[in-house]
Amino acid sequence: MTEITDFARLVSRDQGLCVVSTLRGDQTIQSSVVNAGVLDHPVTGRPVVGLVARGGSRKLAHLRANPRATIVVRAGWEWAAAEGPAELAGPADPLPGFSPGELPALLRAVFTAAGGSHDDWETYDRVMAAEGRTAVLVDPQRLYSNA
């Protein structure tokens, strides 16, 4: 049985590189490479798979229309997938129960969960705000892998 810890273990082995897939309006799949990681949901405290999306991106438009995603992480020949409903927290996407003033800290938490680090968090926060970055939080209702 695949657990969220299996997903997190693989994230740490390949710099958080993952593939996220969303559903387009014409019912075809759109996939892109992102950095993602496992962190606690800022409202519920439950583990989620998080990534940061640029404001205005196609993946955000898809998730607003159909808030579900599949995220696959791979390291060597091992892989794990997490799929489920997605919640958005960003300038154009208020998350119920979450204070918008805490968005910079959430974006940092997602970034570090994906293995990122930064020498100048103030600059990071400024760039994230300027780009309208949004946290995507996927509830891993279905987890599976080749392990």
Short overview:
This protein has 147 residues and is of the alpha+beta class.
Count of separate structural domains: 1
Helix content, binned percent: 25-40%
Strand order of the largest sheet: 1-2-3-6-5-4
The profile of the biggest β sheet is:
6 strands, antiparallel, barrel
- Second-tier CATH architecture: Roll
Q: Report the uncertain regions.
A: none
User: Rg to the nearest angstrom?
Assistant: 14 Å
State the end-to-end distance: 9 Å
The first-level CATH class name: Mainly Beta
**Order of helix and strand elements from N to C terminus:** HEEEHEEHHEE
- Overall average residue pLDDT: 95
Tally of helical runs:
4
Shape: globular
Number of strands: 7
- Per the CATH scheme, the topology name is Pnp Oxidase, Chain A
Structural class: alpha+beta
* CATH homologous superfamily assignment: Electron Transport, Fmn-binding Protein, Chain A
How big a fraction of the residues is strand? Answer: 35-45%
